[in-house]
Amino acid sequence: MTASGASGNGHHLPESGNGHHWPDAGNGHHLSDSGNGHHNAEPGNGRVPHPVSGGPIVQLPTAFGDFIAQAWIDLVTGAEHLAVSSPNPPKDGKAPLVRLHSECLTGDVFGSYRCDCGEQLAYALEMIREHGGTLLYLRGQEGRGIGLANKIKAYALQEAGFDTVEANEQLGLPVDARCYKAAAQVLAEMGLHEVRLLSNNPDKQNRLAKAGVKVVEMVPTEVPSRDQNIRYLQTKKDRMEHRLVLDSHLGSAVPVAAPGPAFDHEQD
Fold it and tell me: Of 114, 129, 144, 178, which one is the catalytic site residue?
């Protein structure tokens, strides 16, 4: 996208009134696609943008409302990400809401209660539908970047008594292996240089700032805890500085014959 708001194919995007350009739903045009994936350094900061390539914009009707979607490819890793946006610009001239949602098969698809990922995903989509914004679904970030198989190994260690941080360390893996350079570049290509970040994780704010995206507000996405994930959430609050209150609790989702262990998980 050019400084004037033109996408890579020469089409201009409508402005929301606050300087942010918003995708034109249903037109099938690319927000931005460099064609060859090569980018020059951004003027003024000497930063070389992370190479990404965007595809066509399509309509995406969902249980949460009507959205528009655009796939993006990280040209360094090959990871495929998805931007899911409200078709309407943000209200009241505010910066758009943005959620960087790390892929979580167990929580997002199977509704696992070991984590709060699926419930945060649903909450973020509802907020974006109502107030305007974009959710970037970041694939390749399962288990805070350690992968699905390693996440299940970490689960086994958590059931043996380790918390989510200790389990990764026992496996010789980083506590958080995620990278947000591609996500930041996707936001830049979409014209979203100032955002209100839907997250409880201050590390995401810091990493986006280093990549050139200004977070003007952190919007909490805390959902009620459960018996199955309260220890994991407490660990995130105590050891990873997540901004959680933990004053709302749902208890067990279904009756159980005997008390089960409190599990940890590995996600945002």
Answer: 178
